[in-house]
Fold each of these.
Amino acid sequence: MKKTFVTSDRVREITGKFPTPYHLYDEKGIRENAARVNEAFSWNAGFKEYFAVKATPNPTIMKILHEEGCGMDCSSLTELMLCERLGITGDDIMFSSNDTPEKDFKYCAKLGGIINLDDITHIDFMERSIGYIPEKISCRYNPGGNFEISNMIMDTPGEAKYGLTKPQMFQAFRLLKEKGAKEFGLHAFLASNTVANEYYPALAAQLFRLAVELRDEIGVHIGFVNLSGGVGIPYRPDQKPVDIYEVGEMVRKAYDQILAQAGMGDVAICTEMGRFMLAPYGCLVTTAIHKKHIHKDYIGLDACACDLMRPAIYGAYHHISVSGKEEAPADHLFDVTGSLCENNDKFAADRWLPDIDIGDHVIIHDTGAHGHSMGYNYNGKLRSAEILLCKNGGFEMIRRAETPEDYFATLDF
Ligand SMILES: *Cc1c(COP(=O)(O)O)cnc(C)c1O
């Protein structure tokens, strides 16, 4: 049985103070998981996880992860500004964006963040934007074709808009070196939300080999290899979680065989995980407000796709439990819906659940990443609050819910 981190007593207590719907985060779980990631890669002296801010751009969460030794992976101006306000600058920022506007490059350069270029033409574009070539620079690699592990297609980089081709990587490193760059990084993101332990090791081996080739042909100093994000979590009850220690160990083997063998044992590994760092440590707490029997049976919640978009746009599975009814038999077939005037606004379709009464607290699991952050205002819906279950046992609001005044704030009306 898949459980979430919060008990029904706690849900009742928190809901007594803050009305549903809200996203709830578990500080203890976040810290323990971050510590495991750091331990799994502790064999690499320069290892750093740069948390993908877009997954959960909340300053309190970012601060917690920064305290655990994480840097921040930003992709936009406002994400950079969040870091600045938290005093996170310099090498603690990785800027992995694409189709990048000039002002974003400028802001990143102002903060001294590490720029990870998404295209060969961005060398000139960046140089024009910021006026120079940073000494430390990274490029994102896209090998094209399919990304396979043991003959299984994991994803299709050939269809992805990101990164530079292999010949472009060589051209780019040559050009950047001529223009004065001194330390180089390589980055690739080749599969999304995979729970295969083999993903990072297979990706790492590809990038390590390319790093050796680039050093040999161009004579550049490779400072770091960035394995990016993509490490998944078991959203479904039958999925096995990633064993991050096993992953760290397999990456170490590839590192020893390829990089250390080539005399490149000083290369730092970095990662940019979002989902793996946060998804299981957040849930969306809602209340059942309607029950409807027509051609199917529906439970209507006080939350909607504006609070959690993944089921509506990707048909993503999120486990659902009913607070206080965890042990009750799942003998009712429901569609669990929000209130948008869109029939895809369903958190689940044909899901076996215990009987749900109006007023029950319905918990949507694993919303800690790409949950609140993908929220939007369609149908005039207002984004929900974010609450932190603190490691000392208390709880606090870390973002208030939007009000109608927020909705009107951009209008002169
Ligand atoms: C989204 C993203 C990440 C994080 O991805 P997860 O799957 O959440 O780990 C990391 N790097 C880049 C460049 C991204 O776009």
Note: Residues 52, 54-55, 73, 96, 189, 192-193, 228-231, 272-276, 369 surround pyridoxal-5'-phosphate (CB under 6 Å).
Amino acid sequence: MRLGQDELNYRPETLAVRAGQQRSQFGEHSEALYLTSSFVFKNAAHAARRFSGEEEGNVYARFSNPTVTMFEDRLAALEGAENCVATASGMSAIMATVLAHLKHGDHIVASNGLFGATVQLFSNILSRTGITTTFVPQTDPAAWEAAIRPETKMFFLETPSNPLTEIADIRALTAVAHAKGILVAVDNCFCTPILQRPLELGADLVVHSATKFLDGQGRVLGGAVCGSKQLTEEVFKYLRTAGPTLSAFNAWVLLKGLETLKLRVEAQSASAAQVAAWLENHPKVARVFYPGLPSHPQYELAKTQQKSGGAIVAFTVKGARNEAWQVVDNCQLLSITANLGDTKTTITHPASTTHGRISPEARAAAGIGEGLLRIAVGLEAFEDIVTDLDRGLVKIVG
Ligand SMILES: *Cc1c(COP(=O)(O)O)cnc(C)c1O
């Protein structure tokens, strides 16, 4: 059951705990987990009506499941979207978005700062189906416009970018795309709808890795695509046939994750702003990349489209790989892992992990230096996070 017009005026914290809930005949207060792969019908005619789509309702869990529907409706309400379809992972959300709307011969313009697996998907897998991609700088709308071809069907972007937190101007890129009838898809993983609502800025589709902030506690994989009924219906048609749908169990975990999304994202983002300011004043830190700092080249633009700087901070130490690894290796509290969006703060050395398979030249061109570190700030006390970072930082000579 979708929310009525009045309920859509509820604020995000209300939507996060209330939107999308459907109670069964038992009147459970907390959303139920429907672990069932299929659904039964009253009689043959009922089955026929459900299968033909003449009557709405559940048929088989690859098509829909009540727990998954509750998650979809709650996330749609938070993104301000007409509809949402859930997927097994963030990557399957991206795959489904592209394959639902593009075909052999079509072309994507994408930012060169995308999540690593998205770059691999576009460059090595979708390219085999005849869908090609041109990668352009995140921050330069003119480069996006110049990359458009007659067969361009989609702009795909992710803002802020990982790990350098470069901002793509969603309004400007949408204007360029829509003038040519091109769809705009935004990966909103870093900000979540709590900090940024791309559909309100003009984008057509929002994709999520629900694995990150939406779960927020590092438990399950999941993904989602939000947008108009018409555009997400195409994604749904792909999913119900191709199969990468969200499991009911994961949907239930994510539904509970959404309830605390606003509290977590706001607290983590406030703490990240403090960590970024602390790093900027540290004598062993060369540069900090954080959209909430006035020193960020796109600080003003970021303020027009996201509510705060978010929970991801990148910085370069004075030195190279040895110095960066020293900071990682001296951490006692921070988790050494590439995941992000968790309640537990994580630290990553992108050049040797997430961006390790890219050639050193391409890494250098993308600005991913050997001294760069990325932290995804969690819910620990700010003081404890910076004490942990300082253990390795103070040992840097020079
Ligand atoms: C993690 C991530 C993905 C992929 O999501 P999975 O759930 O791991 O498949 C896509 N985009 C961004 C920005 C991510 O951080």
Note: The radius of gyration is 22 Å.
